[in-house]
UniProtKB/TrEMBL annotation, chains A, B, C:
Gene: lpxD
Family: Belongs to the transferase hexapeptide repeat family. LpxD subfamily.
Record-annotated UDP-3-O-[3-hydroxymyristoyl] glucosamine N-acyltransferase non-repeat region domain positions: 35-101
Protein name: UDP-3-O-acylglucosamine N-acyltransferase
Annotated InterPro entries: Hexapep_transf_CS, LpxD, Trimer_LpxA-like_sf, UDP_GlcNAc_AcTrfase_non-rep
Catalysed reaction, written as an equation: a UDP-3-O-[(3R)-3-hydroxyacyl]-alpha-D-glucosamine + a (3R)-hydroxyacyl-[ACP] = a UDP-2-N,3-O-bis[(3R)-3-hydroxyacyl]-alpha-D-glucosamine + holo-[ACP] + H(+)
Function: Catalyzes the N-acylation of UDP-3-O-acylglucosamine using 3-hydroxyacyl-ACP as the acyl donor. Is involved in the biosynthesis of lipid A, a phosphorylated glycolipid that anchors the lipopolysaccharide to the outer membrane of the cell.
Keyword Cytoplasm in annotation: no
Stored Gene3D superfamilies: Hexapeptide repeat proteins, MurE/MurF, N-terminal domain
Active site: H251 (proton acceptor)
Taxonomic source organism: Teichococcus vastitatis
Domain of life of the native organism: Bacteria
Assembly: Homotrimer.
EC id: 2.3.1.191
Compositional bias of kind Basic and acidic residues: 346-362
Length: 362, 362, 362
């Protein structure tokens, strides 16, 4: 099933030659064949392009009726009769480029919606698209061709480079951003972090949070994710770093370039990441840590100490992946064979997963 | 204490006979007695209806001054003198129906607020209630009696059936929804998922996300939860499936009917759930898994492999609940008695829970 | 580097005597010296005030060129020549007061933005600042000097005391709040909780949620956090309690005063916290628990049973911290030395952290 034209209208059609060129792929097929769009391998038709990453779906490839397939060179022989092959050592990247040709990103429609509130001294670059009920504060600066979605709020003094997207309901404050930065729906950048200190009487006094957030070029912040501004120095996300949805970045976190932070991860204040660190879903990092470049942190890990560059850790507390795996296997075997302790009934009763049915009498 | 009339005005009063009928319960008491509302068992008065699920709160029942109580037949003998009993094998369901009689859900007030922005070619069913600053995009279609709250955004081409609620600050895009679907406050449905691929130079190229989100009848998405649209095929939540708050649903997740997904759960892309799967709070599932119907996944579980239908798993990595329980007991006993290793000071220092007090000198 | 004046304009300058007085600190230095602002210890200049918490950063202190430093009395001797010292047993609190003198919190600018929608019978105290596109519902009451940010929504009947801040995109409904309460960006308070019950046929029927949310004085709710209203009785957060970002509070949770709930914590319905309970990041608590005053719950803990006052627990399932530490050490040693089981290949393969690259063929 190809993309629903109501939501994803397709440009084109394009000849195979054009697609192969955009993809940087070597074409084995009729260069003049016209293709209309992209589709999954198992449902693509004669006018569509699919792709294959590796051997795992070889059966689907052989059964496919796609007009063309992007795939690694070593699988070329498995392409069905009549299907054109575009060979690439990075087939997913090649496919992304082809898909983008059929479905270019939505271009900003220059203009300011009449319901938007734009401060008189805000500076908007040429071609900006400011949507309904958007709010752009005093002295804010947007580069060229920025897309500001419905209800988005850009606070006073914020600066964004060219080709940024601040999507519906996103809020940015105390923020300096480069080019091609995206804040997805409901993202929150620059708000006051969790900084306070107790008085002797037990009241909490807020510590003024006097830093900012700096987002490098091509940073993306996922839907409903939060990036707190710094306490004194800044919170910084390096160029290309991407946050998935529902991520929490505490004050004064600093990352290098190209970090990948998956959904629901939490990074406590002042922790520093090198370049190309990957953190899998729901992992948590305590504060003031150093995570070296290209370290990989597993899903649900609980990281409480520094991680050297290039190391893979997982578990809570986190440990090298190989160790964690062995420990998990051992624990599982233990659970599978150990009889209940003679010490008496289990105290940790595993509560049943809630079914939404309250067990109260009220 | 019954419901605050400033927030929850009560319809009625109603005679017991009417309540018992609505509840599908067998009445043991004066059918003509008038009741005014509902209240918790331990604070209900003579004009109020309470309920009891099971034996756990029997003491509260005996002390209760409620005018009527809904409860299972086997507890009928414990009802205090003067208190009418409505007997039901599903007392909580019966109580829900009675409560809804006193407090019917807020009906939409037909009309479009003057500050709302509704595209000229959007189609609104009869009786729709479009609130302040709501935005309804080009070609969107809403069924009858839909309630769209303040600042809600319904993107171009979206389709909703009848009696849907898209509450304050919710955002839907690339979305096809059935009837009686609810998006709670700040829910995000249909946004671009976390799909990108690296170039050889280490830049990330976004993979166009060309699918949609399909929500079956009676699906509910909790506050600030996120449901990403599919990469090519759709992300699908089956009829009756309910998500609690702060849940993350990755691209191309597919669920059957009646799944229950508790707060802060994360499900990675392309994982499939059968029918009536229950996932307890903060659990995480990796991608491309198959979770069979009626499987139950425990709180904070880390599911990394398929779960057969009807199985209960918990732990991280997840394992059958019985095994996880035994492993946890063993681990706990180990912690309670094992002396510190002679290998030297503990390397995993349990960091103190943060108190909001920064330990920096800045 | 001191605070960016574009975002954090500084009041002052002030003489040291004034700062010491505000800080409640003992001054050792020239009372007439003028200071301009605050900065981190390692970058502060002659016109700036820094602070030091303890010995950890003594080296930075000795190298510092700050004009004045706030620090504990026992470190006074380490203050560099020419740097004035302000001695305090609570240096972070003292510093917070000095920072607030230079950077007082943004005062509300009295007035109602022309794009705001305020119900005719809403009552606004003197000096309220109602921002663009804010919505204040029928019968809502705000005390004096409340700040309501862009797109914030205050539902019908809600009551807030004086000096509250309901920041951009926050939504409050069914809510009674005291003085100096803050809802940060995108916070959701008062929405319908996750309450429903199954019919025999497997449909879910919503249980009307007829309670409210009550927020004591000085409660703060972090960005994108969710606090569900009660099912019958109320959900209550005691005075001074602070929630970080992306926290989930289920219906009928009740806390005492001064609780600290760090990012991404989830507390299930009807669980009760005493006073000054601290819950570290990403911890989860099941429902109907009692957590005693001053208990401390560790990061990522899974609490399934009551915690006595003053106890520290961590792990999942949670256990006393000392026990958890020992168990973790043991597990780690196990992983580091145990050879792969002769039982065969590991079944729990640790999936690689996702890199955003889909492994599908579509």
């Amino acid at each position: 099933m190809s993309a629903d034209p109501r939501f994803h209208p397709a440009a084109g059609p394009y000849p195979l030659s054009r697609l192969a060129e955009a993809a940087g792929a070597e074409l084995a097929g009729d260069a003049a064949r016209m293709l209309n769009g992209v589709a999954p391998l198992d449902s693509a038709g004669a006018g569509e392009v699919a792709f294959l990453d590796g051997r795992k779906h070889l059966a689907s490839l052989k059964a496919s009726r796609a007009g063309a397939v992007v795939l690694p060179p070593d699988l070329a022989a498995s392409v069905p009769e009549g299907c054109a092959a575009m060979l690439s050592r990075t087939p997913h990247l090649a496919f992304a480029r082809i898909a983008a040709l059929f479905h270019p990103p939505r271009a900003p429609v220059p203009g300011i919606h009449p319901t938007a509130t734009v401060a008189a001294d805000a500076v908007l670059g040429e071609g900006c698209d400011i949507g309904p009920h958007a709010v752009i504060g005093a002295g804010a600066v947007l580069g060229a061709r920025c897309l500001v979605g419905p209800h988005a709020v850009i606070g006073p003094g914020c600066v964004f480079g060219d080709d940024c997207r601040i999507l519906a309901h996103a809020a940015a404050s105390f923020c300096l951003a480069g080019h091609r930065v995206t804040l997805h729906q409901g993202a929150r950048v620059g708000q006051e972090g969790f900084g306070f200190t107790p008085t002797p009487e037990g009241r909490f006094v807020t510590i003024p949070q006097l830093g900012r957030v700096r987002l490098g070029d091509e940073v993306e912040i996922g839907a409903n994710s939060c990036v707190d501004r710094g306490a004194l120095d800044d919170t910084v996300l390096g160029p290309g770093t991407r946050l998935d949805n529902l991520v929490q970045i505490g004050h004064n976190v600093v990352t290098g370039r190209g970090c990948v932070i998956v959904a629901q991860v939490g990074i406590s204040g002042s922790t520093r990441l090198g370049d190309f660190v990957t953190i899998a879903g729901q992992a948590g990092l305590t504060g003031h840590l150093n995570i070296g470049s290209k370290a990989r942190i597993g899903a649900q890990a609980g990281v409480q100490s520094d991680v050297p560059a290039g190391q893979d850790v997982t578990g809570s507390p986190a440990m090298p992946v190989k160790d964690a795996l062995r420990a998990a296997i051992y624990l599982r075997q233990l659970g599978a064979r150990k009889a209940r302790s003679a010490a008496g009934p289990a105290r940790e009763e595993q509560k049943e997963p809630p079914s939404g049915r309250s067990e109260q009498t009220d």
